[in-house]
Design goal:
- The structure is a single chain.
- By secondary structure, the protein is an alpha+beta fold.
- The protein folds into two domains: 143 residues, Uridine Diphospho-n-acetylenolpyruvylglucosamine Reductase, domain 2; 256 residues, Cytochrome p450 (Orthogonal Bundle).
- It is built from 16 helices and ten strands.
- The protein has a five-stranded mixed sheet with strand order 1-2-3-8-5. Strands 4-10-9 form a three-stranded antiparallel sheet. The chain has a two-stranded antiparallel ribbon with strand order 6-7.
- Helix 8 runs antiparallel to helix 12 and helix 9 crosses helix 12.
- The termini are far apart.
- About 4% of the residues have low confidence.
Length: 410
């Protein structure tokens, strides 16, 4: 699948003019990425793109190639230090893609150590307690708008619910959690990314120092108790990873699944009737519109030959989880099929899949149980999707439903 090049450095893998590369941060890409993926397929499973102005990368849109790369950490490590050195500190994507002492941005023994601590912390999670936390948050949020007959499900439900649940699980005080989330959002969308990164780190340093003095029954304290003995910044980086990957993607998964269930009778009607499980609808969304659409970034240390294309050393290779899931070469019945790549694959696969699914499934079930006649306020094609290289995220999800009195869900 891959080979190594011993000659001079190859700057961009294959010669493609910069102005012909798709910019993944362009709002037109966010508006209709599946059309862009379909056009890209003319070039094969590997497509030169730009993540931002003058930030070249290779986008993997072929399922089989993606699986091979995701399982080949030797040739495609996630450590981005050499890339970061080449692009310099002014690159707007360094806060998002730069090296971190965590299980996502490291390779080899360093990665194994950090992943080990995260896996051990996640094993302490009581899923019954998670159910109680989600139900309590859902009841409070739904009762705040149920008498009105209208709501924006992003800002009035999915975002505050995931924020509250993850903040409680991590043991974050409310103000620190708010600072961390706002900083993370700036990093993800590339607007004020450097300031957002500093805000994010400062909030988490405060939380970790507090937990060092007064540990509790939460994920941050579980990380601190691990025998590997992470230092302050290693702790901050693991806590940051758990919080960032637990909030934004879970929020977007809830919204994308609700949109599908409200607009696709095959899923919405059958879930409400009990003929289909909510998990089936969620898996359909994880195939079609996963919340992290382009992710699992690696950085080859040497040029790599993949098929007939050389990939440049120290340049991002981004897996388009959405495009790979919808690769025509791997079609077939998706009912009960969980072969999608939405959680990644290989040594860097998401370790918190069951937790994310638990939160999303229950949040969806509680909302639809309370408001079964809910529907989008306008046509789905007119909904706005937030620009961003990596996520598939609705800007808003305005809905209408018959008003009802507050109820007890928890």
């Amino acid at each position: 699948m891959s080979g190594e090049w011993n000659g001079p450095a190859i700057p961009f893998g294959i010669p493609v003019a910069a102005d012909s590369r798709v910019r993944l941060d362009d709002p037109s890409f966010a508006a209709d990425p599946h059309r862009v993926y379909a056009e890209m397929r003319r070039h094969g499973p590997l497509v030169p793109v730009e993540l931002a102005a003058e930030v070249p990368a290779t986008l993997v849109i072929g399922y089989q190639v993606a699986v091979q790369i995701l399982n080949d950490e030797t040739h495609f490590p996630a450590d981005s230090r050499r890339w970061e050195k080449n692009v310099g500190p002014g690159c707007p994507l360094v806060p998002m893609l730069g090296y971190r002492q965590n299980a996502m941005r490291t390779a080899g023994a360093e990665h194994e150590r950090y992943r080990r601590t995260i896996m051990a912390a996640l094993e302490t999670v009581d899923l019954h307690r998670v159910h109680v936390t989600v139900a309590r948050a859902a009841e409070s949020l739904i009762n705040a708008f149920c008498e009105r007959g209208t709501a924006d499900l992003r800002m009035e439900y999915a975002y505050p619910l995931t924020f509250r649940v993850l903040s409680e699980m991590m043991g974050f005080p409310e103000q620190a959690a708010a600072e961390a989330y706002e900083g993370m959002a700036a990093m993800l969308e590339g607007v004020g990314a450097e300031e957002g990164q500093q805000r994010f780190v400062d909030a988490l340093v405060g939380v970790v120092q507090q937990k060092q003095a007064q540990p509790g029954d939460d994920l941050t304290s579980a990380l601190l108790r691990h025998p590997d003995g992470l230092d302050l910044m290693e702790m901050v980086n693991q806590a940051a990873l758990l919080f960032s990957m637990g909030t934004e993607p879970t929020c977007n998964l809830i919204l994308n699944a609700l949109l599908k269930m409200m607009t696709d009778e095959q899923y919405g009607g059958e879930v409400l009737s009990g003929a289909m499980a909510t998990r089936d609808a969620i898996d359909a969304v994880l195939f079609e519109d996963p919340p992290l659409a382009n992710w699992s970034v690696s950085y080859p240390r040497q040029p790599q030959l993949v098929g007939e294309m050389w990939l440049a050393a120290d340049q991002p290779v981004v897996i388009s989880l959405a495009a790979c899931n919808n690769d025509p070469a791997v079609g077939g019945d998706r009912r009960g099929n969980r072969s999608h790549l939405a959680w990644g694959a290989g040594p860097h696969a998401c370790p918190a899949q069951s937790l994310g699914l638990t939160i999303a499934s229950q949040a969806i079930d509680l909302l639809l149980d309370a408001l079964p006649d809910i529907h989008p306020e306008g046509p789905a094609p007119q909904l706005e999707w937030r620009p961003g290289q990596f996520h598939r995220a609705l800007a808003t999800l305005p809905v209408l439903f018959p008003p009802c009195p507050p109820m007890r869900l928890a």
